[in-house]
Amino acid sequence: QVQLVESGGGVVQPGKSLRLSCAASGFTFSTYAIHWVRQAPGKGLEWVAAVWSDGVNKYYADSVKGRFTISRDSSKNTLSLQMTSLRVEDTAVYFCARDETNGWPDLWGQGTLVIVSS
Amino acid sequence: EIVMTQSPATLSVSPGERATLSCRASQVISSDLAWYQQKPGQAPRLLMYSASTRATGVPARFSGSGSGTEFTLIISSLQSEDFAVYYCQQYTNWPLLTFGGGTKVEIK
Predict the structure, then answer these.
(1) Per residue in A19-47, pLDDT tens?
(2) Quick check: A110 contacting B, CB < 8 Å?
(3) Which residues of chain A have pLDDT under 70?
(4) Which is deepest, A1, A20, A31, B11, by most CB within 10 Å?
């Protein structure tokens, strides 16, 4: 089955860290760029980060630059988002989504909820 | 940063009627625009890319148009399953993507 499955969300205090994972199956993971996109409760979609199919080129939104790190392990078909120095405003559902380097993510996971609260 | 503005924020439409959703870019993005549909508790679903190309499996009642800074998504005859939130997304600055604020299509 072609799918992406996120995990690792939870409740964390401000200033702490959390690592999200995205497991891919049913397609050739290594040929796709992968994005993280988040959605705060009741709000719209916000792009967070992306990693090229080669795993070398990485890009971040200004709001998370220096705090979040995206990485991928194509041997395990997994993507990670290491989040540090978390803020209340990072509270959101985090989606991973694949992109055939065209610019329009065509497959999204169901998301994992991150709540940053004291 | 390219800002995407969608209007209206909410659109009340009766089943079987036509819905017209608008999306405006703060600068020219050619046809580098995608549309997504999102239902409560679900992930976004790709509907359209390159402004006017339907994604695989998307019904023909969905059509997209526009280029430059002005774009439109039309649902020709609303079905019950079409009531959802719709987002536009530019990718001219790919991989930096930006989304519009969304239009909620609700039952009138």
Answers:
(1) 999 999 999 999 999 999 999 999 999 99
(2) yes
(3) none
(4) A20
Distance CA A18, CA A8 (A): 8
Structure tokens at A12: 């964390």
Partners of B33 in the beta sheet?
B90
What are the DSSP calls for B11-75, one per residue? EEE-TTS-EEEEEEESS--TT-EEEEEE-TTS--EEEEETTTEEPTT--TTEEEEEETTEEEEEE
What amino acid is encoded at A82 in this protein? Q
What's the CA gap between A82 and A103, in Å, rounded?
Answer: 23
Which single residue is written with the structure tokens 């999102």?
Answer: B38
Contact at 8 Å (CB) between A108 and A22?
no
Rounded Cα–Cα distance for residues B79 and B84 (Å): 11
pLDDT attached to residue B16 = 96
Q: Which residues contact A4 (CB under 8 A, 6 or more apart)?
A: A22, A23, A24, A96, A97, A98, A107, A108, A109
Residue A25, strand partner residues: A3
Mutation target to probe the B interface, by most B beta carbons within 10 A, among A39, A45, A95 is A45
Beta bridge partners of A33: A99
- What distance in Å separates the CA atoms of residue A60 and residue A62, rounded to the nearest whole number? 6
Tell me whether A61 touches chain B (CB under 8 Å). yes
Q: Which amino acid is at B79?
A: Q
